[in-house]
């Protein structure tokens, strides 16, 4: 993929948005995950050269993020989180305009605009005023403008924002197709775990401006805490305190089920033993399927 960042720091006044980011990404579809406010959008903007890091250095497609922003933007497509529409424009004009902004000659930009609008399923509505577009159509249009100049790398910031389940499914399938069939590497930022699981095999998890975890999804799952669901009877306060001291992270659900994230080396019998000692009756002890949700929970802390 060609992204290399070293010790990137950035603050908006007193808010430290990025606090020392080191990443090296080679290829494949990469998920940039993290809760709202983790720093994902800021990181994308730094890689595009829209924001200048306070500290650190980086290269995107072998271009310096501090000095070669124009070259980066010619080769990188960017679907921003917020709408970027210009009132009174139709989709063709809008898409072609972004092609020109990325350095394409006018005629070529116009031709490509038609092509990509058909590709994202907006061919029939390409002359309609953008104000009349549904949320799903707007997201497709933002995707179209991001790929109009045939980028090598595509940054997608929360691409399923504001979409109903059908719209979300459609845009995810489109992104999956782009990332698997075309010669485009995709970096997708999202706080929605299933979206990332659908598209990416490699993830970087951001939390509070830092990289909380990164790696192949399969490996992260492997190394991750194992999740068990416990149903217990008795007053659990001391029991919880003690299993937390053993390294477990525990969430209590409303229906009195305890979600226990056990560190890899801890054995189940340690939990049973503690329960016996604390006079807690364990009525159910089920292993849950590990999902990205668990990796995520572990990385950002479930407490
Ligand atoms: P994410 O994309 O993961 O939701 P952001 O990069 O948008 O995170 O935000 C990271 C942090 O920076 C948050 O604390 C956010 O409130 C703050 N922030 C983002 N944009 C601005 C801004 N323009 N001015 C001040 N603070 C900002």
Q: What is the percentage of strand-forming residues?
A: 25-35%
Average of pLDDT: 90
Largest sheet: 6 strands, mixed
CATH architecture assignment of the largest domain: 3-Layer(aba) Sandwich
CATH class of the largest domain: Alpha Beta
Ligand kinds:
adenosine-5'-diphosphate
State the end-to-end distance. 35 Å
- SSE order, one letter for each helix or strand: EEEHEEHEHHHEHEHEEHEHEEHEH
> How many helices?
11
The global form is elongated
What is the rounded Rg? Answer: 23 Å
* Largest sheet: spatial strand order: 6-7-8-3-9-10
Q: Identify the CATH homologous superfamily of the largest domain.
A: P-loop containing nucleotide triphosphate hydrolases
Describe the fold and architecture.
This protein has helices at 40-48, 69-75, 91-101, 106-119, 135-147, 165-181, 193-199, 217-223, 237-245, 268-277, 292-300, and strands at 3-12, 15-25, 30-33, 55-60, 63-64, 76-79, 153-157, 185-190, 202-207, 210-216, 226-233, 249-252, 257-262, 281-287. By secondary structure, the protein is an alpha/beta fold. It folds into 2 domains: 3-220, P-loop containing nucleotide triphosphate hydrolases (Rossmann fold, 3-Layer(aba) Sandwich), CATH 3.40.50.300; 225-300, Alpha-Beta Plaits (2-Layer Sandwich), CATH 3.30.70.100. It is elongated, with a radius of gyration of 23 Å. The mean pLDDT is 90. The structure holds adenosine-5'-diphosphate.
